[in-house]
């Protein structure tokens, strides 16, 4: 609560930083949308407020939904848990060096 109060108190002095952050986010979303392998349109994902005196930026809900669906599809990788089991102990006794490959649980 104290940090929020400090931010509100210093809002006018942080105005240039807020505008710069918004412009950086907008530029980044435009650059991402131009990538050849990009399937999700993220152009203008950060929108200016409808009320110019509100001072709050909003996320475009349609593009947010598309981005969430793309992230969910990427997280459904069936092979994400397959990998190397780095070590296996035998009550503290080292019984050889090797690598065991298996399905992590």
What does it look like?
By secondary structure, the protein is α+β, with helices and mostly antiparallel strands. The protein has one domain (2-78). The protein has three helices and four strands, in the order H-H-E-E-H-E-E. The chain has helices at residues 2-9, 15-33, 61-75, and strands at residues 46-47, 58-59, 82-85, 100-103. The strands form two sheets. The chain has a two-stranded antiparallel sheet. A two-stranded antiparallel ribbon has the order 3-4. It is elongated and about 50 Å long. The two termini are 40 Å apart. Residues 90-99 have low confidence and may be disordered.
**Biggest sheet character:** 2 strands, antiparallel
Radius of gyration: 23 Å
How many β-strands, per DSSP?
4
Instruction: Supply the number of structural domains.
Output: 1
Enumerate how many helices there are, as a single number: 3
Unreliable parts = 90-99
N-to-C terminal Cα separation, in Å?
40 Å
Mean pLDDT: 66
Topology pattern, helix = H, strand = E: HHEEHEE
Estimate the global geometry from the Cα principal axes. Answer: elongated
Structural class: alpha+beta
The strands making up the biggest β-sheet line up spatially as 1-2
- Helical residue percent? 40-55%
How large is the share of residues in beta strands? 5-15%
